[in-house]
Batch of 2 targets.
Target 1
Amino acid sequence: MKIPFIKKNISLFKKKQTFNFIDLSRQRKSKNKKGLTLKKIIDKNIQSVFDHGQYILGPEVKQLEEELKIFTGAEHALGVSSGTDALLIALMALGVKENDEVITTSFSFFATAEVISLLKAKPVFIDIEPNTYNIDPNKIEEKINPRTKAILAVSLYGQPADFKKINSIADKYSIPVIEDAAQSFGSEQNGIKSCNLSTIGVTSFFPSKPLGCYGDGGACFTNDLELANKMRMISNHGQEKRYFHTSIGINGRIDTLQAAILLAKLEFYPDEIKKRKSIGEYYSKKLQEIGINSTPKINKESTSVYAQFTIQVTSRDKFQEKLKVLGIPTAIHYPKILPMQPVFKSLDSKELEKTYKIAFESSQKVISLPFHPWLEKKEINNIVSKISETL
Ligand SMILES: Cc1ncc(COP(=O)(O)O)c(C=O)c1O
């Protein structure tokens, strides 16, 4: 009779299960076909950089660029210092300058619009589609005028924006299109990889991105040789050859060490993409079973890498607080739409809420749940059952 009593007391001391929003430590334990862990391969790759000592533009950078070309199908790939710098380099290569206008989404991470302003050009914000959270292509054409220098569309949360429609509008006016694929590297639209869906594609290898390095990193992609050459020069101080500068550029090179880490991770990435897809679908199914229907909506011509697994809830603050107590971390991507950021705010709030209705309403309700390719079904079940306790 004493045994159940002891058991009960032990269970009182059982550690509460907590979850990581993203768990990169599990990634390091993944094994390749030869049974080598990612950790081991990264250690070997890093050691080899220490051995040759070419920390800037070493052979790993060239090798990474070759592999990125194969992965995306783009003819040219350039490793750069971050996703933000990739955007900046792309805009500079297109000649964006003071008083130009760049049409972009109202709902993204700040960097998307920041780089436009950094060049003293004007971001012209557009509302989003309700299902994908991406720029609404039907609202682009009315904003095009002789000052429009580019369209910068973001593939948010892992799913490409509607590039078929965006490219056809851009073609009509001979305007180049940039894809900010910081969150969508590895996804596809009509069988074409994100980063290769427009004039220039750029991505970020920030550690928490679907393909991340161990610091800052990014890449630019294009099928246009002239733009590829320009971007390469800009990323290296506008040098045509050593100490011969024919344009103004930046220090925008990717580190050799980060390239070595990415080369190791790239081998594992196709398998991670498959896992991301099946976990995303399972998560959605389980959430729908408890009445949450605001799960990610993926268009039939696209795939998603679920950089974020984002749903919508009302009373978000309370929901977030309750989940925190239950050991489930969450994040808000993003609480404030770009035109409402203090630095961009030109109209009063009520006016902005009306103009960017879908983006604004989304910003009030979106919440991202823990998501990574190593989440197990039983963990998802556990998270979903805790969510159901809060409803
Ligand atoms: C949509 C988007 N654009 C640009 C960036 C900037 O990338 P990075 O942090 O590598 O500069 C990010 C990163 O969070 C992003 O999510």
Note: Confidence is low (pLDDT under 50) at residues 1-12.
Target 2
Amino acid sequence: MTAPNEPLETVTLELSDPRPDEVLVRLAATGICASDAHTHTGRIPSPSPCVLGHEGAGVVERVGANVTHVGVGDHVALSWVPSCGVCRHCVSGRPVLCTAAAPALLAGTLLDGTVRLHRDGRPVSHYSFLSTFATHAVVPAASAVRIGRDVPLAVASLVGCGILTGYGAVVNKAKVTPGSSVLVFGAGGVGLSAVMAARVSGAGQIIVVDPVESKLEEATVFGATAGLVPSDDLVSRIRDLSGGGVDYAIDAAGGEGILGQAFAATIPGGTIVCVGMPDVDARPSLPGPELVRDEKIVTGSLYGSSRPSLDIPSILRQYAAGVLPLDRMITQAYDLDRIDHAFADMRAGKLKRGVVVFDEQLAGLPAPDPVVTLAA
Ligand SMILES: [Zn+2]
Ligand SMILES: [Zn+2]
């Protein structure tokens, strides 16, 4: 990405060797996330020029001198929160809040404040430490999570952002219990991951809200028991369906007014987890007396409130065991030089997840026909 809203370019860049605490990865596949598109439009500010892409999986090609937890040839899924392991948040088991990672992420560098990417000698920014829309990436060692070789890397490529975000909001933050009722706003990649997680958590009822009817139908494949299109009487319909209100509400959309609906549709003592990123100037309001009287919990969840090095392999083991149908998230594969089409398809709501495939065999997906895209 040369600048926001400029056409994406496929070019050859110089990639420096990994430093002592870094890893060189050859990407097999990368998922395309809404955050990439939001960065391209400028809604999410990020330094440019940069190489976008922040969910990917591949094979380790080289490791820095200090790296011991992965070796050459290992399969890895990438995490965009390379936690330091020593700050108070890391030590207390909340590595996604790591204070060391956040400043470098916003600056578009690796953890030491410098970049490994250059174009004709001029620096090019990293995106979320990973820059996976590329055949190769140098990433912080802590971003490389070793995974089993039995998982197709196209599936593994999705786990490092959308899937972990939705799954973790349900399992790590809401801590959904068997037999409970769960409401999910948004049936995109994150919402569907929340639905899958609610199902494996044993939820008895999973209600999904999305304006697109076809997405509601797809959500049933992942475990939704009911689907609703937004309407003026949405809250009363949810209350009717759930016998008075749901136990948990997950806002995977982040749109205006959704938090208020989620709050109203949740029973006293219930939990509302905000996952979808609202606009920067959003200031949602809640009914004060009910906040006190009903003891509802309203909380955010970043990156699935996860411990990526534990949760990513766990999610992939659940895929391998046939419990989480992660491969059904993939709608379409693209060549890297057709990524503009992938962005167009995503904006048009045609994708659960699109993936760029670099290595057909390791990705476990056939290489896409370069002519056929959903946008065509
Ligand atoms: Zn993402
Ligand atoms: Zn830390």
Note: Residues 153-174 form the longest helix (22 residues).
